[in-house]
Predict the structure of Catalase-related peroxidase.
Amino acid sequence: MAAVGGVAAVDVGGFAYAGGWLASFSGPGALTPARFADRFENVYGRHDGFRRNHAKGLSATGTFVSSGAAAEICRAAVFQPGSVPVIGRFSLGGGLPGQADKPDAVRGLGLLFQAGGQQWRTAMINIPVFTDSTPQGFYERLLATKPLPGTGKPDPQQMAAFLDRHPETVAAMKIIRQSPPSSGFADSTFYGLNAFYFTNSAGATVPVRWAVVPLQPGQPKPAPSPGATGKDFLFDDLIRTLAQGPRQWRLAITLGAPGDATDDPTKPWPPSRRTVDAGTLTIDAVHTEEAGNARDINFDPLVLPDGISASDDPIPKARSAVYARSFSRRAEEPKSPSEVDVARVLS
């Protein structure tokens, strides 16, 4: 946990990095970071002290042991052979910190690697492609999926109209439906989704995407119904699992080829692309969110070490700016207790 100490100062640098994108908005109809944050609050309500998206979560700590194999394609210190500390956060998609866990809820894993005096931050989810190709599409989908009072479900007409305008989302949802979720966090594969560039020590650059793939033995099993197991069954299961011992994932780096989309996360790359086994991520503990742990980390996807750079994908740039706005809002708000309590589960 001592590794968290210098995070706040680095976050300021991350906000400055996103500043160019923030300053590029102009005009009365511009899709600004503030409007994006407002849209989350409009859809989910305002919950002081919590993230506007992925509000429900648990902090985590662990290590990453690099195999050294990725050093061939990336000069970042994190890929040199050896072990580095990792701070993580498991979460559910959406802006409701007290939402009930559901088997098909989008699960997130944010990671902060610290190596060579630099940080690499990544925020991944458990679906193989993203649902939107542009920030505008994501913004429109937020409103289309807003639950109606009484039914708790989106307006079908509004959702149908959105999908008519966004065939890329229809195609992405078809791919997502073909990859049913595993039983819980510990046996989920988490995907980075967006393309980035790796540059090695010789200056050669290649487009990449990454994922962390569980190493636990056994086949994923269907998740139990939440009604039979409690409101927080996904998180409770993770807490109990890690109390029995660490869980591990393999960091798989996929190399893109000419013609592979680097600007559209709704489009998968062919499964035949070369994959590099970069090393092993071990999560050995989770923690109730409180001051001093991952609760106060902004998992800005553009906080990158030397050797990793952004591609032409517009989503990470938008996320960086909106994350900064969300972080600055919740940093000034009173903190409410986390829905998920490790001590309660283990007592």
